[in-house]
Design a protein that fits this description.
687 residues, Methylamine Dehydrogenase, Chain H, five-stranded antiparallel sheet, alpha+beta
Length: 687
């Protein structure tokens, strides 16, 4: 079967390329015609790519099914989340065998044999739709109404609905393009945010349940294209907060929840490069701030009536080596999430005594995150702990007793034994001397002689740390002797804001050299060998892999790129696209010469050249609103033109989904089975 690009009909193949003069350079985009989503021939081309990939993968069909069956066999299909209390109810979700989506429920608290009330059954709501995603999910203070939003396209186009939980009826409210919602204390007023034509959350509205949407009041319009708007209710239930935020600057507005028609007050006017985040407790606001160049944040409190910096009281100072990631405030204590050397630790402070202590965790690499902590008055803090070898575990931490109580651990069917695997934390050295953390897991008996195959992943963008989480599906690699590693490269947030700063804008190339250094380290230390290494990444992590492959195509045996951001220059030139303007502070603006001079050196699409590339699997979704499908489509088309070898290049397009791939849990598992079949086949472990 020939390459799809060769099978194009002449009218498409002869379309005029897009030519642009930029900073004295002539840029030719010969595959720009792939942007025409409504063109039947473009759709036919994508379908041809799918057919081509399926044909090349035909020998793995039985193996894909075997992988799917074994991954499914490890999952408890009938399962339930740990219930959490909110008001008079216990809320939870559950899944049923054979059903793609969760069912959201509640039961009355404090009742011996409470009856279950189904609030939302996504399986019913998904009938007749190939895709569904739940966005907002918020119950009013009186427990009688549920505000929820659904997307049926994968393009993150959420429509807001309100359900009367006393009658089970869905009310007439039908509000489109909603990104966030929050109830006022009267249980009748709903605040929501809508997005503009570029999908930027920009307008805050007030809605009275039962009134016409056309009568809603516009509370605030964020006009700066760098800023995105969000609204929520504090855990104390005392305030509504609305945050306008860019990648470098934030501004928060507050409204007492009991006065929904009142004026929203700006707590601190925006200042360039000042990010601050607000919570509430008692008579004070708790403010996590990096004002004055304190990049890793400190924690202060301020009187509600006067939150100016002159009235601040410092609770936690700024520390160069510790990133203050988050703070959860409760009636009797507060919990700070700190990150040091890439690992999260929890600092718990009791308000009455002022005593503080850390919650310690034993493993060399792990992930800790808050679980549902809906109640303001509670003696315990609920958290989720996991590692590369420990399944996700929900604990209640008793603040006074300083003890952890396990509520639920993810059940892995089939007799999972963590002793069969070995987790490590090691460091590579980047060309400029930076120490790059690497988290990895391998079979317990894997030798350090270069014989172990390895899958290496990374992300390195937006200041987001790559979580060190457990995956039961990953056992399909480990059980076949394939290790897994995460390179915690610059651009991410593993080592604080400066780690992010050193991998964005003009410093973006550090992200790629860090990843290459991590791969070279794992080979040099004989954790693996170059012909036994597969690299993978998604979204901004797909940009990472694309840039690395252009620089070092010899680095690995194969690569997987999921919804990859690979057409950086062209996308960042198009301000009509979702995300572009806001992300000028992450990637830069190519209309600015010094930004363009760096961007052009690493843009994966722009830097494809005649050379050998490893085997590659590229994935995208037709309805992706974050990385448009045409980016990987153009990237693959240009690779087919320049690639100077016979290694496989497969392109899979989900014609119904968005950025996250298939929405149903069984469909998502089949996608992963295909990916693993490709990886394991390239490593000679397809058995």
């Amino acid at each position: 079967m020939g390459d799809p690009i060769e099978a194009l009909t002449p009218p498409v193949a002869r379309r005029v390329p897009h030519v642009l003069e930029l900073h004295g350079e002539r840029r030719v985009d010969e595959y720009s015609w792939l942007r025409q989503k409504d063109d039947a021939q473009v759709i036919a081309y994508l379908q041809a790519e799918n057919a081509y990939a399926d044909a090349l993968l035909t020998p793995t069909t039985a193996f894909q099914q075997a992988l799917y069956d074994e991954m499914l066999a490890r999952i408890k299909e009938d399962d339930q989340s740990v219930p959490y209390r909110l008001g008079a109810w216990l809320y939870y979700s559950r899944t049923e065998t054979g059903k793609q989506y969760p069912i959201y429920c509640r039961k009355a608290a404090g009742v011996d044999t409470p009856e279950e009330q189904v609030l939302l059954d996504l399986n019913v709501l998904a009938e007749g739709h190939p895709f569904i995603s739940l966005g907002a999910y918020s119950v009013s203070d009186d427990g009688e109404r549920l505000a929820y939003s659904l997307d049926y396209t994968g393009y993150r186009e959420y429509t807001l609905h309100v359900k009367d939980l006393t009658t089970g009826q869905t009310l007439p409210e039908h509000i489109t393009h909603v990104t966030a919602v929050a109830w006022a204390a009267d249980s009748a007023t709903l605040f929501y945010v809508t997005e503009d034509e570029t999908k930027r959350p920009a307008r805050l509205w007030r809605h009275r349940v039962g009134s016409a949407v056309g009568d809603d009041t516009l509370v605030y319009h964020e006009t700066d294209g760098l800023f995105r708007l969000h609204v929520w209710r504090t855990r104390s239930r005392a305030f509504l907060l609305a945050l306008s935020g860019s990648f470098t600057t934030t501004e928060v507005r507050a409204l007492p929840a009991g006065t929904p028609e009142g004026a929203w007050d700006v707590l601190l006017p925006r200042e360039q490069d000042h990010e601050y985040y607000v919570d509430h407790g008692g008579d004070r606001f708790y403010i996590r701030t990096n004002r004055g160049g304190r990049r890793n944040f400190r924690l202060v409190t301020a009187p509600i009536e006067d939150p100016r910096p002159a009235r601040w009281t410092e609770l936690l100072p700024h520390r160069d080596e510790v990133m203050l990631e988050d703070v959860d405030v409760f009636a009797d204590h507060w919990v700070a999430h700190e990150r040091q050397d890439g690992l999260v630790r929890l600092l718990v402070t009791e308000l009455a005594s002022g005593r503080a202590h850390h919650v310690e965790f034993p493993e060399p690499a792990y992930d800790v995150s808050p679980d549902a902590n809906a109640e303001f008055r509670t003696p315990a803090y609920r958290l989720r702990y996991q590692s590369l070898v420990t399944p996700a575990s929900v604990f209640d931490y008793d603040v006074a007793g300083r003890t952890l109580r396990l509520l639920k651990q993810q059940e892995v069917l089939g007799g999972y034994d963590p002793a069969r695997y070995r987790s490590e934390r090691v460091h590579a050295t980047a060309p400029d001397g930076a120490r790059v953390p690497i988290s990895l897991v391998v079979p317990a008996g894997a030798p350090r002689d270069g014989s172990t195959p390895l899958l290496l992943t990374g992300y390195g963008a937006y200041g987001i740390p790559y979580p060190v989480t457990f995956s039961s599906t990953r056992l399909s690699l480990l059980e076949r002797g394939v290790g897994f590693a995460i390179a915690h490269i610059r651009g991410g947030g593993e080592l604080g804001k400066r780690w992010h700063d050193q991998g964005r804008m003009q410093a973006k190339p550090n992200t790629f050299t860090d990843f290459i250094a991590a791969a070279d380290f794992l080979v040099a230390q004989q954790y693996t060998a170059r012909d036994r290494l597969v690299i993978e990444g998604g979204s901004a992590g797909g940009l990472l892999i694309g840039a690395v492959l252009n620089r070092r195509p010899d680095l690995c045996r194969a690569a997987v790129l999921r919804v990859p951001f690979v057409d950086v220059v062209n996308t960042m030139l198009d301000e009509s696209l979702p995300l572009t303007v806001g992300e000028f502070e992450e990637w830069g603006n190519p209309k600015v010469r010094e930004h363009y001079d760096v961007m052009r050196t690493y843009c994966p699409y722009s830097n494809i050249r005649p050379q050998r590339y490893p085997a590659m699997l590229v994935r995208t979704s037709l309805n992706d609103s974050q990385v448009m499908y045409w980016e990987p489509a153009k990237y693959v088309a240009r690779l087919r033109r320049f690639k100077a070898d016979g290694t496989p290049l497969l392109f899979k397009i989900d014609m119904d989904a968005g950025h996250g791939g298939a929405s149903g849990r069984y469909d998502a598992l089949r996608e992963l089975a295909l990916d693993y079949a490709f990886v394991l086949s390239q490593l000679g472990r397809a058995c």
